[in-house]
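Hey, sorry to bother you again with one of my protein questions. A protein chain has come my way and I'm curious about its shape. I'm sending you its amino acid sequence along with the C-alpha cells. I owe you a coffee for this, so here goes:
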Amino acid sequence: MKNRLNNEKIRIAIDGPSGAGKSTIAKEVAKFLSIDYIDTGAMYRAIGYKLGQNGINLDDKNALNQILSDTEIDFRRGNTILDGVVVNDIIRTPEASKMASICSALPEVREKLVFLQRKMGQTKSVVMDGRDIGTNVLTDAEYKIFMTASAEERAERRFKELFQKGENITYDQVLQDIIQRDYNDTTRKLNPLRKADDAIELDTTGMGITEVTDKIIDIVRCGR
C-alpha cells in the first residue's frame, strides 16, 4: 500500500452534512496513509487571523484583494503554515474564530481559499473534507466519499460533544439545528451540498471511527 502511494498522487475528497464526522475520519485516513490532511476550517482561521493582525477593513476591497494575493497557506505533517510560519495555536483563539466566521461569507476569501486548495491538490497527495470538495474543489479527485448519517445520530453525537463541554443545550435544539443546517447547505445557490455523481456514499449510522476509517482505506486499497 505504501509503495503504491509513493509512486502516485492520491486525492481523497470527503463531503457530507454537518455532524457526519468528516474531519475526524479525514484526519485518521490521512494519518494511516501518511499524507497531508487539508483542514479547510483552519484555512479560514488563518485568513481571519492575518486580516485581523493587519487591521484590514473588510469593506475595502482593494486592500482585501491585495493581502489575499500575498497569502500562502499549506499543511505539512499536521501543521498549518501561513506564509511560511506554523500557526497551529494562534489561529485557535476566539478572535481568530470570530474573524474566520466573518471571512467565510466573503466571496473574495472563498475564491482565494478554493484556489489554494486546488493548488495543494495538484502538487501532492491529500485528504480534504467539506461540503463541496468533490463537486467543486477537487472535481478530479481519485476518490470521492459522501459521508452521511441520520439526522438523529448526528444530533446525538453533537449533543454529547457540547454536553461534555458544559454547554446548556437540549438534544431537540441540536437536532433542529442539524436539520436547519442540512436545509441551508443543500439549498444554497453557490455550490450546494450534494453527492458528486462519481462519489461513493457511505452511511455511518451506527458505525464507529475505526470502522468508518477502515471502510475508506478499503475503498482506496481496492482502487474504487
In short: Residues 4 and 54 are 44 Å apart (CA to CA).
